[in-house]
Each structure stands twice: as structure tokens, then as C-alpha cells.
Amino acid sequence: GDSVTQMEGPVTLSEEAFLTINCTYTATGYPSLFWYVQYPGEGLQLLLKATKADDKGSNKGFEATYRKETTSFHLEKGSVQVSDSAVYFCALSDRVGKLIFGQGTELSVKP
Amino acid sequence: DVKVTQSSRYLVKRTGEKVFLECVQDMDHENMFWYRQDPGLGLRLIYFSYDVKMKEKGDIPEGYSVSREKKERFSLILESASTNQTSMYLCASRLQGAKTEAFFGQGTRLTVV
Questions:
Q1: Cα-only R_g, chain A
Q2: Between B25 and which of A7, A19, B63, B93 could a Cys-Cys bridge form, CB atoms 3.0 to 4.6 Å apart?
């Protein structure tokens, strides 16, 4: 079946460092891809999405590009802040609407 | 604002009890989901409903059932709770279609003793 694999955490960075969180997927057809974020004590919320190959999703300085050839959707940010500390989830949506998540990657940003 | 409301934030139940987790959304969404969230395992899909009375098993349906009699409400049922079902349970909803955003409830922390 369809699946999503994320790089393991936790990831610890200093403020203003560059962030990459890797995400790869396995799916039949052409899924839509998402990044969700869970801040401490809060529910999950959408960070960004891409719905077709070569699309780039972006929000709050984060970016991810839908790469069909490598089945990847890596999350990047050029300069992280302490307020970015959270758990990040990569997800895909198949053609019938089922939403499947990866394991989550915990990010901790130190001042 | 879309609101997804789960009936309880915290629940403690005894082994063997029948447990009902309720989820209500107020935006007329067709799709609703139940996940459990465990450290290191991420969100695992238990059941998915794409319309009233329609459901599809997710990756870990064993020990669970669901009910969707009305569009706005999606219930998760633990027929006979066991300690390995202690977890955080998350409900989500979204409009029909693969490209739409899902909205999540705050979660129910269930402890089975």
C-alpha cells in the first residue's frame, strides 16, 4: 500500500541554521503531498502542500518541491527560529482521499 | 473557522470496557478520519469515512470499529479496550478530494488500565 517515510528525529539546530527534513513516499498514481506541523500542546495544522509534480509549496519561510522522479517532498527553511520548534509530519493523499502520514520529525531550535 | 471537536481531552477506562470516542465537525465535510498517534510511529490511520454510512479500513483497524450515521459525526468504538490501545486519538475532516486540507481536533488521550 501507499506509505510515507521521514527522516528520524529529533533534529536539534541553532537559531538561523538551515533546515532540511527528508520525506519520501511510495504510491500508485500521482498523490497530493502535504506537510503538517504540530506545535507543543496544539493540534496538527497544514503547513504547505503540492498537488502535482514539480509544484512547490511554501508558507512561513518553509518550502517543499514535489519530485516525482525521486518520489520525494523534502521540507526546507533557510533560517529557523526558536518558534519553529515543533513536530513536522509529511503526508500523502491518494486518489480516493485517504490521508497517510509519516512518522513525524521533532525539531528543536536553540537560541 | 472550521471546527473539529472531540468529545473528551482525557479518558481513563478499564480493560474490557466498551469505549466510544466522538468527533463532530461543523463544515459539512464529506471525509472524516480517525488516527492514533504514538511516539516514533507517527499518525496511523485506523478508519476513514468518505460519506455517511461509508467507511474504509486504514492500516490498523483491528480492535476498532466506527459509525457514521450523520455527516457531521464520526465515532470510534473500542469494542473491548485493552492496554495496548492506550494512545492519543486524533480525528480529522476535510472536503472530498485528494488536494484538500484536513482539519484536526485537539485529540483524546486515552489510558486503558
A1: 13
A2: B93
CB atoms within 10 A of CB A52: 12
Work out how many CB contacts closer than 8 A connect A with B.
Answer: 64
Mean pLDDT, rounded, of chain A: 94
pLDDT at residue number A24: 97
Q: For chain B, give the number of residues.
A: 113
Residue from B1, B10, B95, B99 whose CB has the most chain A CBs within 10 Å, to mutate? B99
Task: Judge whether residue B97 has pLDDT over 90.
Answer: no
* The C-alpha cell that represents A12 in the structure block: 536539534
Q: Is A29 on the interface with B (CB under 8 A)?
A: no
Query: Is B97 at the interface with chain A, CB within 8 A?
Result: yes
CA distances from B53 to A24, B29, B31 (A): 33, 14, 11
Confirm if A64 and A57 have CB atoms less than 8 A apart: yes
